[in-house]
Amino acid sequence: MDFYLSTIGADACETAREFGLGLELAQFCTAENLDRRWEAVQPELRRCLASAGRFTLHAPFNELTPAAIDPLVREVADKRYRQALALAARLRVRKIVVHAGYTPLIYHPVWFYDRSVEFWGRFVEAVPDGTVLCLENVMEPRADFITDIVRAVGSAKLRMCLDVGHANCRVSEEPVARWIEKSAPYLAHVHLHNNDADADLHRPLTEGTLDMAALLRQLPADVSCALEVPRCRESVLWLKQQDFL
Q1: What is the rounded distance in angstroms from the CA atom of residue 191 to the CA atom of residue 45?
Q2: Are 136 and 98 in contact (CB under 8 A)?
Q3: Angstrom distance (rounded) from CA 112 to CA 187
Q4: If both were cysteines, with which of 21, 100, 119, 224 could 2 make a disulfide (CB 3.0 to 4.6 Å apart)?
Q5: pLDDT tens digits, 128-183
Q6: What is the CB neighbour count within 10 angstroms for residue 166?
Q7: What residues contact 20, with CB distance under 8 A and at least 6 apart?
Q8: Can you give the pTM of this predicted structure?
Q9: Cα angle vertex 103, ends 149, 162, to 5°?
Q10: Any bridge partners for residue 96, and if so which?
């Protein structure tokens, strides 16, 4: 199992360097950093690139709705994701995390499924060979909201990113172990953080209701995992103590 540290962590770069881990670049979760604020993030990005030898990229997600009813809204999502593809090629990153964008009480599940399959089925044509988009759950209530899309698109360029913290929040209708069981055939990447089974708190792996050791043992051995926590070293030390590193 290959581990990465999200750069949302204040100590991600130094911890990655110390333990030989990869980094998940989160600087471009905010889309404007792809545009006029590019220069502002350059020093931090250079520091990250000098701290690790392998990377994943988290694409923009704020206000992006690939299954939107309005086609102009879908165009914005398409533009931002294409910018992320170009950036990934520039940085030689082969794994990109994108949000599925489901909003409870707004999108009917059938509409969300139909529009998502249409959007991602078309978009994967722009994805270079060897690059994988990892579709992440956020407010989806069940794993099949994502797995059904990935299966319908039927491309090796679209897989799933299971965020176990999101799957443990109030919007989830299934226990996380069930999410893993249903997601396993489609998984390429996993986000790790803990919480109180209610809010999305991004706590360290040891602070919350999730039995993280049991969940990690349940995951397929060939997936990559990224820690999405404010400080990384404590959780990395725990992974070492548990013989996951």
Answers
A1: 21
A2: yes
A3: 20
A4: 224
A5: 999 999 999 999 999 999 999 999 999 999 999 999 999 999 999 999 999 999 99
A6: 23
A7: none
A8: 0.96
A9: 50
A10: 57, 133
